[in-house]
Amino acid sequence: MASRPDHPTVGVSRLRASGAIKPDSTSIELFGRPVGVVHRIFPNGGSWSFFVAPCCGRRVRTLRLINDRILCWRCDGFGHCTHRDRIERLRERLYGGPARLNPRPGRTIERRHQLEASLRRALIVERRKALENAR
After folding, report:
1. 93 burial class (0-12, 13-18, 19+ CB within 10 angstroms)?
2. Phi-psi bin for 73: left (phi > 0), alpha (psi -120 to 50), beta?
3. CA neighbours within 13 Å on the CB side: how many for 116?
4. CA distances in angstroms from 122 to 1, 10, 17, 75, 135, listed in the order given
5. What mean pLDDT is reported for the chain?
6. Quick one: which of 4, 5, 12, 17 has its CA closest to 35?
7. What are the pLDDT digits (tens) for 23-48?
8. CB-based contact 1:73 (threshold 8 Å)
9. Residue 135 above 80 pLDDT?
10. Per residue in 94-128, is it b (16+ CB within 10 Å) or e — as a string?
């Protein structure tokens, strides 16, 4: 996930690797505020650590400071990408030329059916959002 330069981002993996979060930690201070930490422990002895997002209580790997609030990617308003970005990327893959650098002779694009279905779903979501905003 690309970080935005105007919003500081903290990843739990970096803190775990640096030793700031230990396997028995239950909270850590980020941006001057306490944030919960939970661990997923595996039968082989390994574990993953997650933040407990202060905004929604979900387990997340990264948190971002936006307008003096600590938010996860679901609550920050940016998300991973907008539906408009996804629609443009899908259209480019479908209609922008060969999908491979060296396409096989007689072939157009692999996975065309899946990409077209994904494009249809993204267009439906965009239409629904437009209708909800119009109300």
Report:
1. middle
2. alpha
3. 6
4. 20, 30, 37, 20, 20
5. 82
6. 12
7. 888 999 988 899 999 999 999 988 99
8. yes
9. no
10. beeeeeeeeeeeeeebeeeeebeebbeebeeeeee
pLDDT for position 78: 62
Instruction: Say what the pTM is.
Output: 0.56
Distance CA 68, CA 54 (A): 13
CA separation for the pair 121, 128 (Å, rounded): 11
Token code pair at residue 16: 């775990």
pLDDT of res. 1? 42
What 67-74 contacts at long range (C-beta under 8 Å, 24+ apart), as own/partner pairs, is: 70/30, 70/31, 70/33, 70/35, 73/1
Question: Helix %, strand %, coil % for the chain, to 5?
Answer: 30, 25, 45
Per the structure block, which two tokens stand in for 75? Answer: 């609550």
Give ∠ CA 58-61-64 in degrees, rounded to 5.
Answer: 85
Amino acid 2: pLDDT:
46
83-104 mean pLDDT: 75
- 80 has a pLDDT exceeding 60: no
